[in-house]
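Practice set, problem 2.
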Amino acid sequence: MKIKPGIRNRLIHPIATIGCLPAILLTSVAFGQFQFEQIKSFGFPEQLGSSPSSLIKGSDGALYGTASDVIFKINNDGSGYTILHHGDGGALVEGSDGVLYGASGGGSSGLGVVFALRKDGSDFRVLHNFTGANGDGSHPFGVIEGGDGFLYGTTESGGITTNQFGGWGTVFRIRKDGSSYSVLHMFSFGEGMWPGAPVVQGSDGALYGTTSDGGTVRGGTVFKLKPDGSGYTVLYSLGTGFGDGTDPESALIEGSDGALYGTTAAGGTNGSGTVFKLNKGGTGHLVLHSFAGAGDGTGFVAHGVVEGRDGAMYGTTGGGGTGCGTFFKLNKDGSGFSVLYEFTNGTNGCGPAGAQETDLDDKTFYGVTGVGGVNNSGTAFKINIDGSGYTVLRNFISNSQDPDGHNPVAALLAGSDGFLYGTTLNGGSNQNGTLFKLGNDGRGYATLELLGSQNSLLEGTDGALFGTTLLTVFKLNKNGSGYTALHTFSNTGPEGSDPSGTLIEASDGILYGTAYQGGTDNYGTVFKLNKDGSGFTVLRSFKAVGGDGRYPLAGLVEGSDGILYGTTSRGGSVGGGTVFKLGKDGKGYRVLHDFGSVAWDGGESHAPLLEGSDGALCGTTFYGGTNGIGTVFKLNKDGSGYAVLRSFAGWTVGDGSYPSAGLLEAYGGALYGTTQHGGTGYCYDGIGVGCGTVFRLNKDGSGYATLRRFSDTSGDGNIPYGGLAKASDGTLYGTTSHGGAVDFGTVFLLRPPVTRLTSPAMPSQGPFRFTLLGEPGRRYTIQSSADLIHWIALTNFVSVTGTNQVTDVTNHNCRFYRAVAQ
């Protein structure tokens, strides 16, 4: 039998080839396996980047720069901000081939890399991983392209490693394809050590650079060497002359007069740094300007100078002026020094940083500030070289300021409209959390409300959303309108405080919930209120005596008998919490189980109960069990039949640990849930190790399986603190509180096992009969095709038992069939 490939998407199940030859099953996923997909990563990573450190203008007229963990592009009018690459950047240079080159931290040894990146963000390549061993450098500053096409650069450390500091640094070169890497020079104590900036190639072909330490009086040096590494010479030892500067930490430039110009971070007559000049032969050293500090500028974080079309030198200081640095000008003979612009600690940025550039065509100076701006995370700016026209091109945003929601810790709500609804504990424009909606295919994401909540939402029978924050019970329409605080709790008092559990709407149409604290003994309460906010009533205040439960963390469930059931995280006769029942009128309170009262029992349930299809109650405990890291348990509604169905084994064997959320009953009548930790990876939050799991377990304790082990790599989500939600099509949805693109958490789905189409022995022509093995209660469309391109629906039906006989009564010589889940 030849298998003819079918056209499938994630909702279409494998194709049976029927009628040509005996039927054969074409499968892409083995029967019984769930299909995992991440459909949302919280945060807006393409808008992030903070504390920028360099900026260059490309041959295409765009600006390219680096900020914390990103390489970015921006137009010179401030538009078109784009993240080209996530990762450490360092200073950039555009090669003669139009490719961006740079050196940064990270790499296989964590000691830095030389990299290449196209200006459209594609083809990122690591050209060299620094090791710091066998004379190699470590912690590079940046590269330049020499006239021979090689890249040349320096490393702060590495090279000669006979000292406790990991070496005094190196000069290296490498071809642009990553070949022919070599260390040209290893610095040694005294001659110059710890270079703080890349080299520059002079008009004579030699390489010139600075070291921040070493020399005659350890004030740093200006050095020279040939491109092949020979002829290393200390041209000048800084700090040896009167009023001399020390600690040069920025790159040199060669002026139009052939002399070298640079800056020092310290020294000078005021101790605030200098601008200096030196001939390439080492003669004629001259301090052009000693920074004075306030009102002038301080070279403590001076970043070199550039030459303008008028022959003057322009640069910035990271301090001085009114406190946040200056933009200055001076002539090459040291005359005419003037502060053209003073930065302030406001919306215009503070602390100019790193590499800078002057566009001689439009007489514009471009640069970045490391802090300041409207988000205090730095800016990119431009200014005319006469000091006018200062413009902020970009206000950078740090991860913590990302306006998206961060860290969803509650289970999602699968709404009746096909959207998912949830909350984030942090983030949003006020950084206090959000309420969001998301299409079940990952589209249509929107923030509906700004609020801080760690609890799941409820969809009422009226279609509105209900939820809780630390102080309120609220109502909100699914389109984001109509937010209403139905009830506000006091911090203390008999009504309770911190309603930490999910609300339920009982069969009487009233909302019921729990408050973690408050009540008569401050151990929490059970309450009810109407959906319009009226009729708030405390049904139960947990007591300090009599072995009562304390601190209910989870919400309630209404049993099929109309009684409310819940858990407390502490208290009871043993102190490990309880399972309790309570009438909706506040009567009939009873503790059904004291956790810790039987051997290897669970302890501290943080999650709501589930009444299974067999009428029994099931739940999880955060602690306890044979390994002390949580359990799944079961008991009857009268308190009898208590059993531990599963004691989690933990990270060392790839099992889950610390289940913090409740269970649901789904495909095959089994129990499904999440564990906060365990599985794989090394996610650690002070409680447990491992990045969390999704698991399945039969209601009798058999058939335990881990469906998903989250990791701490490749943008995977981790720590699924909240539980699962089941959509009408049987798909399971969940959240991870961390991980994803920027570690703000994710939304994921698990689709039920694929359906199979099978067939008995086939006739040569129709009618054709075959069997659909589907999920009970799920609706399918059976489609047929003669060419695998044009498909015709045969019938729509609900798979009631999970196994259905399907017949196509038309006559065909050859036919293909597929089942499409609705």
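Problem 2, part (b): a different protein.
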Amino acid sequence: MRSVARDQRGVALITALLVVVLATLAAAAMVSRQHLDIRRAGNVLGQDQAYLIALAAEGYALGLMSGEGADQDLPWEGCISPPLWVELEEARMEIWLEDMHCRFNLNNLSGANQAAADGFMRMLELVRGENQELALDPEQLTAAVQDWMNPETDDPVYRLATPPYLSANRPMVMAAELRRVQGMNPALWGVLAPHVTALPGSGTAMNLEYASPLLQEAFPGMEGAETRSRYFRLGVHAELAGRNFLMCSLLDTGDGRVLWRSQGTCDD
């Protein structure tokens, strides 16, 4: 009987130890998960704070460019402003603006603007001359861009692609849509991207005084035309508590509104 009692006490002790081990493992897992949840919540909170700070910078820039001083000359020369550093409590921001009138508006090709089409073809011819390795037909690509935005055309070549898609049949919202037009390729887009943009309307003038030499050569006779810039691209790099947040926005200073914004760098 004593042997049986000792065996039972031994089993009970082992069972108790197993319960303690299981409880310890469960507690450790709970603590680890809580730490992970706290860290995740901190990251989300930090990102939200950085986003709100970037929005504040966007609103300030839009108000400044759309206010009483909007008709005055810009306080910098050229198409891109020097970077402006701003510190606000624990946040640090780098802000810059780009005059988008220094680029060719692809939506100028959406209407019956022959001067815009001729200038775009000249630009493509200059690009082809400087980059012999590019497969480029200036006339065909110009026509493809016009068809892409024409609501009355629907080229079947897009439906035969893998995966299939449709042409926009409307003006471009972002210049990156050009990558989906027939005749474009990544190498050609890399060359054209710094010189083109997508702005509302089809009659946007260019600020050729500070535009790239490529555009100045493609659109001769327009260098002396005075242009009042309306559309600007804003880049914001916010740093908060060791976290970075990047935002890019297109500002319409004429109507005082944001046309679009995206999280990330202002890629060409």
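Answer key, part (b): The longest strand covers residues 231-240. The helical segments are 2-66, 114-130, 138-149, 186-192, 213-218.
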